[in-house]
Amino acid sequence: MIDPNYVLPPEAVSNEAVARRLVEDAAEQIRAGRLKKKRLVWLELTGCSGNIISLLDGFHPDLEYLVTSMVDLVYENSLMAAEGERAMERLMGVLDEEFILAVEGAVSLKNNGLYNVIGRWQGEPLTALAAARMLGPRATHVIAVGACAVDGGPSAASPNPAQCVGLPEVVDRPMIKLPGCPCHPDWFLGTLAHLLLYGAPKLDDLGRPLLFYGPTIHDRCPRRPFFDRGIFARTLGEPTCLFKLGCRGPVTRVDCPTRLWNGYVNWPIGASTCIGCSQFGFPDGMAPFVRFDTTREP
Amino acid sequence: MSTRIVVNPVTRISGFMEIDVTVDQGRVVEARTKGNLFRGFEQMMVGRSPFDAVYLAQRICGICSTARSVASSLALEQALGVQVTELGRYLRDIIHGCEFLQNHLRHFYQYTLPDYVRLPEVSSIFTSDHGDFRLPKEINDQLAEHYFESLQMSRLAHQMLAVMGGKAPHNHGVFVGGISTPPNADQIIRMKSILQEIAAFIRTRMVPDVYTVARYYDDYFTMGRGPGHLMSYGAFDRYEKLGTLYVDPAVYRNGRFEPFQADLITEEIGYSWYRGKRSYTPFETVPEPDRQNDEAYSWVKAPRYDGLPFEVGPLARLWLSGQYRSGISTMDRTIARALEADKIAGVLNTLLDEITPGVSVQQEWRVPERAMGAGLVDTTRGALGHWLKIEGGVLSFYQIITPSAWDFSTRDDRQPGTAEQALMGAPVRDSDQPVELGRILRSFDPCMSCATHVYRPGQEPLTIQVL
Question: For A72, which of B16, B18, B124 is closest by C-beta distance?
């Protein structure tokens, strides 16, 4: 019988191996009840609820790993078993506790926030605006997930009928911003893992983790050689550079070309133009998404 | 003595919803369903490049975004006078079918199952409060395991979608002409391989599981009927060579089958927060928001077919295509969703066998100065319509009537909406734990991101102040 405390050499010391040991160690501590899981509140506000759907698409870690081994997910409108007042009790219950707050969706300001009511508490409607103001300042960390939470996104598209703004407009505190429409599950889960294991990740001057939001899509695009040689597609579906059809890869800073989506099988430019969904100002600042009337070289 | 019950939020749906019912002697005697979100995509579309509709409209909904890309590209094709090739249709419909699978898997396991099955409390979200769990422990635990197994399957359905769509949700593949980039042989075989895995799960887990739930909760076969009028715009239908693989456009009302006529669709706003014509056809007008209407209690509009509210979705489609006619109820609707998942997997297999690899269906599409087009198609939750007009080369008008608007419409002068009628007469055993209400509503698979928002009648709701 080998002493369980005896470490067999040699032990792998690569980043991946160290990270894996830390994660497994943390999971083991949680299972043994020595370490309490941090609470996570995921608020869906004024948007399409597509970021929670994207999170369900995460592989390794996936949702099961997230809720069993990483955090205690306390509130999530699309998934929680409780409903009505009982669900609201869960949300209000975190106010006196420590929790991490993830927010998807913009915050509608119109009519004092009444364009988006996310629940009812003690008979009165709880607006997205009130929920953001109530929970935002109290969380240990805030993560704005997706384009709408970051700066209004599609919910704030002109003429912005619901007067939507991003979370930073109504919650004045440091927060991590994960733009994207939707946010890639890895961008959120990797950011959360960093928070849990190593503290806040390094951010760029706009609040995005450098881990995911660095070089432009154009810098790492597999179609880049066509751009460099001036070979441009005239229709979608051609394998050459889509720049003249309206591709926003040159201004969009995110790791789509190397990370890929949905179990790493494809990415937007594998199908059509990049529409700049991970860049500030999407969608109005990135439109038109596809155009056929650009001036071309002869 | 009557009791008013308000449930808000109705969780495990997409978006935000409130149920407001009055219960008398243990039965619902008055019911209102209310959406709690408004963004105004119809207004946002005006002035934009017509092509942008395909991508922007998807942002209406994160769980059924592909449906919007399909309806908007169909409407654009009509406006631009584009003849879509059969290959283009096949490819677009395959992407759309993947979304059906993703949706149905998630709706049954993640949204519906926690109503009937106790989940292990590994995270606080799985804690349930009601006391009506009837499955024996062994069976309960098996279904709870399938809850987690299903996560891999719905994820795979989105992966299959992304093989041609680029990513999901909010795909880049569906476009005017059918699809932006055609698949190669390796992508076709990847999709077939993924599909085989999902199809096996549907056959060996999902379908048996839904019948297990039905066996222990058989009282739900007598609850939540609704008006009993069923409609479909058609799905996977009228291919040149393959014919109809699923369902043709059709209507069932008062016990009779009829052909579907698009010109019988109207929308009413008598009980919604809008001003303008009280009843209009889709191309006529998009009403202006107006909160001063005293009769209104909701911002969900009321779509009608020949003046009647209709149920749309999987049960309607199976019924109209003759594949399930056992009954119309909460449990029939839930069973139909699982059976339809199996059906769609078969349809996708047939379509994948028809694909020629590497053949582009794209052209340099031209936008006319003036045009109009309609895109009517059945999507996961039912009948979806986009109606658009182009003036000066940009969008000048955009009308959207979603499946959830059909199922969760407000009342009109003559009758309540579809889900409101389904709630009428429902028994509520414990008004403190009205589990019946959520079960009935979820059987329709509400997607309130696709619909609207609401205020309480006659009063300005207060904003909660938490210091």
Answer: B124
User: Where residue B132 sits, what CATH number does that domain have?
Assistant: 1.10.645.10
Sign of the Cα torsion B267, B270, B271, B273 reads: positive
Q: Do B155 and A76 touch (CB under 8 A)?
A: no
Q: Tell me the C-alpha distance between A291 and A183, whole Å.
A: 25
Structural domains of chain A sorted by starting position, each given as residue range(s) with its CATH number in brackets: 15-198 (3.40.50.700), 218-286 (4.10.480.10)
Nearest CA in chain A to B445: A78
Tell me the per-residue pLDDT of B248-264, one tens digit each, with 9 for 90 and over.
999 999 999 999 999 99
Q: Give the ipTM of the model, two decimals please.
A: 0.94
* Domain housing B150: 2-450
- pTM here is 0.93
Reduce the DSSP state of residue A82 to 3 states and report it: coil
Say how far apart CA B160 and CA B54 lie, in whole Å: 20
Helices within chain A (DSSP H only): 15-31, 50-56, 63-65, 84-93, 110-113, 128-135, 147-151, 185-198, 224-228, 256-259, 268-271
Instruction: Identify the weakest region by mean pLDDT among A22-31, A33-42, A130-139, B326-335.
Output: A22-31
Please state the rounded mean pLDDT for residues B91-110: 98
- The residues pairing with B379 across neighbouring beta strands, listed in sequence order, are B382
Judged by CB atoms closer than 8 Å, whether chains meet at B63 and A49 is answered as yes
**Domain annotation covers residue B325:** yes
Q: What is the pLDDT of residues B122-172, one digit of tens each?
A: 999 999 989 999 999 999 999 999 999 999 999 999 999 999 999 999 999
pLDDT at A241 over 80: yes
